[in-house]
Specification:
The protein is mainly α. The chain is built from six helices and two strands. The radius of gyration is 17 Å and the shape is elongated. The N and C termini lie far apart (about 40 Å).
């Protein structure tokens, strides 16, 4: 449900703030309504947010994302995919940029 709520916050441009708030207050998940988290994260239209929580299109998109992750062998986040390479766990941005540059150079670009 947190993933659905995060997507609903994203609809109003507040994904990052909502995400950060959920991580900061993990022990409150399940105790505090998602609309309250949304309001605290700066979601302006909490009525639309509440409707979004039951929108089947959001669940379908998340189910499709989960199926794609399964096909790619992704078991957790973060996972970095570059061409046929898969790296589980966090990597510094400069490491990822260097990997992409190396792959582009190998492809002649």
């Amino acid at each position: 449900m947190a993933a659905i709520a995060s997507e609903c916050a994203a609809v109003q441009g507040r994904f990052e703030a909502f995400h950060d708030l959920l991580y900061a207050e993990q022990t409150s998940i399940g105790l505090v309504r998602y609309t309250e988290f949304a309001a605290r994260a700066g979601v302006v239209d909490t009525v639309a947010f509440g409707r979004c929580l039951s929108d089947p299109a959001i669940r379908t998109r998340l189910d499709e994302d989960r199926a794609a992750a399964d096909r790619l062998g992704v078991r957790g986040t973060p996972t970095v995919l570059v061409n046929s390479q898969r790296f589980a766990g966090g990597r510094p941005a400069d490491w990822i940029a260097n990997l992409v540059r190396t792959e582009l150079a190998a492809a002649g670009r």
